[in-house]
Amino acid sequence: MTYLKWILITLCALFVVAVGSGYIVAMMAGDHETRPDMPETGSQKAKKSKGSSIDPSVMNAKLKARLKAFEPKGIYVVIDTGANELYLKKNGEVVRRCIVSSGSGNVLEDTKVGKKWVFDTPRGEYEVKSKAVQPNWIKPDWAFVEEGEAAPKSYKDRVEEGVLGDYALGFGNGYFIHGTLYTRMLGRNVTHGCVRMGDEDLEAVFRTAPMGTKIYIF
Amino acid sequence: MFTAFCLYFIVSTVCLGSGLAWAAETPDIALENRLLSAELGLAKQQKVYFIVDLKAKKLFFKARGMVLKESGILGVRLWGSAPKLEPIELTGKTAIFAPERENVTPTQEAAAPAIENTAAPAAAGALKKDPYDIKALELSDMPTTYSLRLGDELFIMVRPFAEGAGMRALSLTQKVGWYVYMPIRTLWMAAKKEPVRTVELTLSPKDAQAFYWSFLEGVSAIVYMPQKQ
């Protein structure tokens, strides 16, 4: 019993030493600063070297103005691929909220030719590059691979009508905002990367967003 | 004597741990100017970025200087010194139950469920919560507990807000355990030459999943910490 007690005390002591060492290492790691003088960014160093002595509140207003200048003017689109929501916005205010479907995140591999497709909706800033009414779907290679078929050589064998809804807005690299036959799947991640919308919402977005409208996807 | 020793150990580790915590700060316009300067660089890019504002306890999804989405941070714990107030890129995510992509086998219809499913699902009685079993990566597949590594600077550990008596008891255990776990983790990370600074964020489960979903490798964040005076 005495031995057990001493073993436990020794283990506890070693544990305390380990924990204490951890605190010391944490305090030593980096600068444990107590003054408000944070490491400066490159632009701040450049300003200092120019002998700038602008009042901080004036600088604050200038910086906020510069940041505000990056914001899009007028109409823009925000797509939340996690929540499957699309917001049509104007000057920061929501004009319309829509339920959409975005990329499934699935992976398709064609082992015969060693090609791989990942069905994600791309993230970042884009813009409306094309607009079409009654668009036809020009089936890409993956659509045939997915069905276990060989991709056709003829262009006209790739054309499929009536599956993209009444309108389509292209935002580059083959991605579109378009309609869908599968309206019950709106709100789910079921597409190959495009953004699918219900008919009414799609028409509203199509009529409101001109070419060049910014689209922000996250 | 043994009991007294254990009590002393527990009290001393809690006191030491408290010493490493940062106090809440009054607004500091110079610090805010540095945040804005740092953000300007990110706003020039065509990418979404994040601001983790530990002073306002908000998580901002931003692009071009404007807020796309805002989430509340329900709890914050800090370990180590403040990171530099500049954009840091996400270089890795770790989760026990990390989601995995589905591999589509050719001849399966991956994205188009059978059209007969468009009929009303309520025909036979109570509605099923999810009448369509789709194979896809969705928000609900994302973990609520995970760790994010930002460059060589910082780890962000995300935990879900505890709801229910059982989860609150677990959360309390985790809170106390933090003061023992973090120093030992520090020794381990220092030995591996990994970052020691850690920020633990408590988010609602949904916000935790949304953050994991949107914060991809290669995307940058700025962690805005209050400064000790």
Please tell me about this protein's structure.
The complex is a heterodimer of chains A (218) and B (229). By secondary structure, chain A is an alpha+beta fold. Helices cover 29% and strands 29% of the residues of chain A. Chain A has five helices and 14 strands. Chain A has helices at 2-28, 42-49, 56-68, 141-146, 199-208, and strands at residues 75-80, 85-90, 93-103, 107-110, 115-118, 124-127, 130-133, 137-138, 159-160, 167-172, 175-178, 189-191, 195-197, 214-217. In chain A, strands 1, 2, 3, 6, 7, 10, 11, 12, 13 and 14 form a ten-stranded mixed beta sheet that branches. In chain A, strands 4-5 form a two-stranded antiparallel sheet. In chain A, strands 8-9 form a two-stranded antiparallel ribbon. In chain A, a hairpin with a 2-residue loop joins strand 2 (85-90) and strand 3 (93-103). Chain A is flat and about 85 Å long. The N and C termini of chain A lie far apart (62 Å). Chain B is an alpha+beta fold and 229 residues long. Helix content of chain B is 31%, strand content 24%. Chain B is built from four helices and ten strands. Chain B has helices spanning 2-19, 29-43, 165-191, 205-214, and strands at residues 49-53, 58-63, 66-72, 75-79, 88-94, 103-104, 146-150, 154-160, 198-203, 220-224. Chain B has a nine-stranded mixed beta sheet with strand order 3-2-1-10-5-7-8-9-4. Chain B starts with a helix and ends in a 5-residue tail after the last strand. Residues 18-26 and 108-129 of chain B have low confidence and may be disordered.
Low-confidence stretches of chain A: 31-40
Q: What is the tally of helical segments of chain A?
A: 5
Our Rg estimate of chain B from Cα atoms comes to 22 Å
Stretches of chain B where pLDDT is under 50 for at least 5 consecutive residues are 18-26, 108-129
Number of strands of chain B: 10
| Spatial order of strands in the largest sheet of chain B | 3-2-1-10-5-7-8-9-4
Structural class of chain A: alpha+beta
Q: Provide the succession of SSEs of chain B.
A: HHEEEEEEEEHEHE
Main beta sheet of chain A: 10 strands, mixed
Query: How many strands, what sense, and barrel or not for the largest sheet of chain B?
Result: 9 strands, mixed
Structural class of chain B: alpha+beta
Q: DSSP strand (E) fraction of chain B?
A: 15-25%
Arithmetic mean of pLDDT of chain B = 80
Oligomer: heterodimer
Distance between termini of chain A?
62 Å
**What share of the residues of chain A lie within helices?**
25-40%
Helical residue percent of chain B? 25-40%
H/E series of chain A: HHHEEEEEEEEHEEEEEHE
Rg from Cα of chain A: 28 Å
